[in-house]
Amino acid sequence: MAIEWQLGTVSSTRDETATVRTFTLGLPAWAGHRPGQHVDLRLTADDGYSVERSYSIASEPERAREVDITVERIPGGEVSPFLHEVVVPGDRLEVRGPIGGYFVWEAALGGPLLLVAGGSGVVPLMAMARHRARAGMSIPTRLVFSSRTYDEVIYREELDRLAAARDGFEVVHTLTRGQPPGWTGFSRRIDEAMLADALEPLGAATRAYACGPTALVEVVANALVRLGLPPDRIRTERFGPTGT
Amino acid sequence: MSEGRAMDERMQRLADMRDDPAVDLSLDANAIGGLLAGIFGADVTGSDGQCASCSTVSVMGTMRVYMRGPGIVVRCPACTQVVLRVVETPRGTMVDLRGVAAVRLPG
Amino acid sequence: MTERFVTRGFVGRRDQGTSDDGIAPDDRRRRTPPGQYLTSDFPVLSAGPTPRTPLDRWSLRIEGLVDRPVEWSWEQLLALPARDWVVDISCVTKWTHLDMRWKGVSVDTLLEGVELDPRAAFAIAWSDGGYTTNLPLGDVLNNQAFVAYEYDGRPLAPEHGGPARLVVPARYFWKSAKWIRGLRLQDRDEPGFWESLGYNNRGDQWLEERYSGD
Fold first, then answer.
1. Nearest to C49 among B20, B69, B89 (CB)
2. Chain A touched by B15 (CB under 8 Å)
3. Is A78 in CB contact (< 8 Å) with chain B?
4. Which of A195, C9, C28, C29 has the greatest CB tally within 10 Å of its CB?
5. Which domains does chain A carry?
6. What is the DSSP letter of C175?
7. Which residue of B has its CA nearest to C213?
8. CB proximity C9 to A under 8 Å
9. Closest by alpha carbon to C122, among C106, C110, C130, C133?
10. Residues A104, A172: Cα–Cα separation, whole Å
11. Which domains does chain C show, CATH number per domain?
12. ipTM of this predicted complex?
């Protein structure tokens, strides 16, 4: 059976960075989702022209009847500039989902967990992290997160809070284009050495999820295999060029 | 297909892909999960699918999809041959499934 | 069929205006086929991974209903008489780019050295990576088609079809086969990669022949 379209209402928006915004969509008929799944959005002009885009759900399933999507504004894109510049709370958008049976994690699957993100690839992993926190799990979890600059780190403050909870959740940032004064973290692209460091305390039973641009995800997946993680414990989601 | 050979080919393809702008034009078929659900009648992104060209079984959501063109092309992650193609026309959606040997629908 | 929900304020991609291209607005309108918008970009569209045939193993072939097949190596192709082409290109995905500058060899030149069988009526272009497209022979003769190896004064980039692609300006760009390796002359038509899945067999952008049945 095809997954049906339903109407969601934008109840609020939140700017995560200068170019990234989260939209909370109220969905009265929403049946719930699993962390890592996504929704399709469909936009239709009055002449019938329509486009669809997929967005990972950023929110945890514990929040009923609403989902967050986090959208990076891509200059020249067809959809993201519209979402950023035109859509306001009260607007309705067509949504279909949840979709995805592969790149999902829920507490029942256990851990330890290695989450690896490039840029807006952090979105589905954030749903996993938020779910883990809401479920009260203390599964050892490491998020290795590559961003261009400090100001472009999506969910930065919330990630700081999750790490400060000292319940087994840690974040390793790497800033690849520019670092603030006094930065002591990584400043290079994610590579095997960085992943080996993150994996070491987690151990061989780790489940890994990597999401982001294609090239990054391929590097990460191959490195994790070389580090001894069984391929069936490595799940990847490649965004291609970030959705426009 | 043996693990070892599949790994070598993956590494070679990785080396090619590093220089390939078209790599960034491919997504996971996970991104067309809604479309695939319309074709197969269920969300098959987590389901096994067998490539008709090389017989490799892969999770459907991990197949490579090229969609910045006249239509949607899904390719086998192991051998890159076409698994399925979709064109949405004003007179209906055309689907070519010749590259799919089999799909295990979710139970 | 139920009424489609209309999204407030959404108009989709519209003309991106290319005001610095030196073309008068009236001219620009006249040269834009129906349903198209103008761009000064060269969008990269693909149906698969970029092929990577090394030039020392590359060849271009004319085969099929000819007296004997002909093949050129890369060096031999570059040695053929070539010219500059400035043409308007339209893709079925609705972008049109005016005055695209190419360098390449006319298909007429490629066919000079062969004798066509009188039954030859169609040219099937085939490419690295498995792509094919079909054209009536009459659509590729008389300087209507060329094999391009330079775009905008530079060697044709792999993502745009390099080292060499077919260009047929009077048809939607899917007929301009990237990574071309040969033309096969046939008596019978053979719908290509997109033509066999709902796209128009002929693809004339001025008649808006996008889909079969148009």
1. B20
2. no
3. no
4. A195
5. 6-99 (2.40.30.10), 107-239 (3.40.50.80)
6. G
7. B91
8. yes
9. C133
10. 22
11. 25-42+62-207 (3.90.420.10)
12. 0.89
